[in-house]
Amino acid sequence: MTARVVVVTGTSTGVGKTVVTAALAATATASTNGRVVVVKPVQTGTGDGSPGDAAVVHALTGCAVHELTTLDEPLAPDTAARRAGVSIPPVADHAHHIRDLAAHHDTVVVEGAGGLLVRLDAAGGTLLDLAVELAETLPVEVVVVTAAGLGTLNHTELTVDALRARGLEPAGLVIGSWPTEPDLAETCNLDDLPRVTGVPLIGVVPAGAGALARADFCAQAASWLLGF
């Protein structure tokens, strides 16, 4: 059986990508008897001792996680590596690692760093490049995590257009943090996001979901991702 590879990108940093990644992993785990792994190719901002995204996902879900490269400063990976004077693996190495994991799991969820075109290596390789390379040999679904409020339509359309330009049709959009009291723009965006992009809205994650205990998070995750 070929593994399901889900690549999670955001329209920008801070849109709720890590919590959505955890929700996707928890939902997949419920249907595949735990044969799910989450991969974070590059994690920056670890120098202050705060947990990386992979650690957050594991805390919320209990899923196995792989963090392939870590860098101290909270910057784009290529910038953080250059400032630290260190070499980081090329995107091709990450693709090889993910393919190896796919051979032993039902679902591999890959979380990017920031947005789709953030550079993950010193040669200019991006999450988009990684997704394209993986799609050469594996079935890849790209989930775009987007903000709820004003400005999200432009950011989301740009991300979707960049994916389509490389031959990848997004599997769906997920609003990463839905407020308890949405304003007019946020309410309209529920309809406008799929309308302007032509991509289905497959999930809405409530604000504060990342603060839930593991059992509560896993029990509720599927209800936030009705289209996954």
CATH topology: Rossmann fold
Give the rounded overall mean pLDDT: 95
Strand order within the widest beta sheet:
3-2-4-1-5-6-7
Structural class by SSE content: alpha/beta
Number of helices: 8
Secondary-structure element pattern, one letter each: EHEHEHHEHEHEHEH
Number of DSSP-assigned strands: 7
Q: What does this molecule look like?
A:
It catalyses: (7R,8S)-7,8-diammoniononanoate + CO2 + ATP = (4R,5S)-dethiobiotin + ADP + phosphate + 3 H(+). InterPro entries: DTB_synth_BioD, P-loop_NTPase. It comes from Nocardioides szechwanensis. The protein has about 230 residues and is an alpha/beta fold. The chain has a single domain (about 5-225), classed as 3-Layer(aba) Sandwich (Rossmann fold), CATH 3.40.50.300. The chain is built from 8 helices and 7 strands, in the order βαβαβααβαβαβαβα. The chain has helices at about 15-30, 55-60, 75-85, 90-100, 125-135, 150-165, 185-195, 215-225, and strands spanning about 5-10, 35-45, 65-70, 105-115, 140-145, 170-180, 200-205. The protein has a 7-stranded parallel beta sheet with strand order 3-2-4-1-5-6-7, sandwiched between helices. α2 links the parallel β2 and β3. The two termini are about 20 Å apart.
